[in-house]
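Researcher: Can you fold this with iron/sulfur cluster in place?
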Amino acid sequence: MVPLVSYSNIVCKNAISRSNLPGLDYSLNPYFGCEHGCIYCYSPSVFRDNEIAKNWGKFVKAKINVVEILDNQLKKLPKGIVGISTVTDPYQPLEGKLQLTRKCIELLSTQKFPISIQTKSPLVLRDKDLIRSEGFDVGFTITTLKEDLARKLQPRAPSPSSLVQVIEEFSDRGINTWIFLGPIIPEINDDEDSFLQIIDLAEKTKSEIIYDKLNLRPWVLDSMASFLEKERPGLKDRLPSLVTRDSDYWHRLKVKLEDLCLKRGVRYKAAFP
Ligand code: SF4
């Protein structure tokens, strides 16, 4: 049987690069590719390559020299917040074996660079000995807490309910936790019940909600086409107009979501204000 995901090693020239993402100064991606294979992922658009986009979710290349390169770069760079990671999940399965993310965190922490982690995996708990209340925040992407839907949207990512205890544990340890509620997909995960499940978790763990809509960068609609056809025939054609930042849909949805957060006393902000 052909394996679903192929693994290989590559060497990188840079370990961290400047980031324009809100709240980050640098981004660090120890892996190229991502096993989780979320159908809404827009990371491939960063690489602007049709082959990469077509095969996204089916390959993972470990940047095998990332720690050594990072060590060299940190000697020359001013301090700033490092986002781990921005176009991959730093705690995907291969990290369990290679520990590249862990070694990068050790190094960054020693050099006193603040670290902002974002993941969908409970494997982050392995590194709780390194992740302290000072100089760290940890974000968890929860697109939905509905297991059936999660399996369809992010087929090889850990179950979102496996994150609940992890967020609680980090929060109990005084670590700044946040939940990335996104992408919000019209008529798929935008109902009040779905929001409330996630807002309840944010309330319980004192986590901020950072939300975002579906981002239809190149290749995203293609990647979602068969899911949309099965779940909501006809939605694919309507999505582009629904998910613009100035659409009535998005305006109404933001009001609804923010109102629910306010009622629960949960802090919130849009990922891209
Ligand atoms: S976990 Fe993140 S980077 Fe990986 S496939 Fe999903 S959305 Fe893309």
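Model: Folded with iron/sulfur cluster in place. The pocket of iron/sulfur cluster is lined by residues 34, 36-38, 41, 43, 57, 87-89, 120, 154, 157 (CB under 6 Å).
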